Amino acid sequence: MIQKELETAINEQIAQELTASYNYLGMSTYFDELSLDGFASWMQNQHREEQEHAMRLLNYLQDRGGRVQLASIPSPQVEFNSILEVFETSLQMEIANTNSINALYDLSLKLNDHATKSHLQWFIDEQVEEEKSMEDIIANLKLIGDDKAGLLYLNDKLGQRSPDSEA
Ligand code: FEO
Asked: What is the value of pTM for the model shown?
């Protein structure tokens, strides 16, 4: 049986993953309206990936006899000033998520919950990838600048991402 404090923190993390999922879905609609199908598809993959993260935590909490509490999810932002702003927003979201995963890990250490600590290791590794993909895309966008051909090339490249791979 999982301790109450960890149960609450895992429920909060589930909400955070689902919020991220919803935000990425909002971003995909922004790209769809710009007819940038590759960017839109990449964001939809990201949306699904965050749902999977939430489900990993939800299933784990249930396996440990915890009570799942599903919080309300705020409406996502769907208007942005630029493509670069979308990815800078995404990077900030991932950094915030890394911090909350680390805080959850610290709590599992404090409470001597070794199973939760072990479960969270996957998330810690995953966050390295998540931040890196956003940083890589931001770097590419800065390099491209106002070059439309470069933007279309990146759009094609991002559209090739398979559902279960990173950028
Ligand atoms: Fe589930 Fe992007 O962190």
From this structure: 0.95
The verdict on the CB of residue 113 being under 6 Å from ligand 1 is no
Ligand 1 atom closest to 46 (CA): 2
How many other CB atoms sit within 10 Å of the CB of residue 84? 15
Both structure tokens of 108: 């599992």
CATH number at residue 80: 1.20.1260.10
Note whether 153 and 28 are within 8 A (CB).
no
Distance CA 97, CA 136 (A): 18
Instruction: Copy the structure tokens of residue 118.
Output: 């072990």
Residue 154 lies in a domain: yes
How many structural domains does the chain have?
A: 1
The reply to whether 141 falls in a domain is yes
Q: Which atom of ligand 1 is closest in space to residue 94's alpha carbon?
A: 2
Model confidence over 30-82: pLDDT tens digits? 999 999 999 999 999 999 999 999 999 999 999 999 999 999 999 999 999 99
Task: Identify the domain containing residue 70 by its residue range.
Answer: 4-159
Residue with the two structure tokens 């470069």: 150
Residue 66 lies in a domain: yes
Cβ of 43 below 6 Å from ligand 1: no
Atom of ligand 1 nearest to the CA of 126: 3
Query: For 34-82, where are the alpha helices, taking DSSP H only?
Result: 37-63
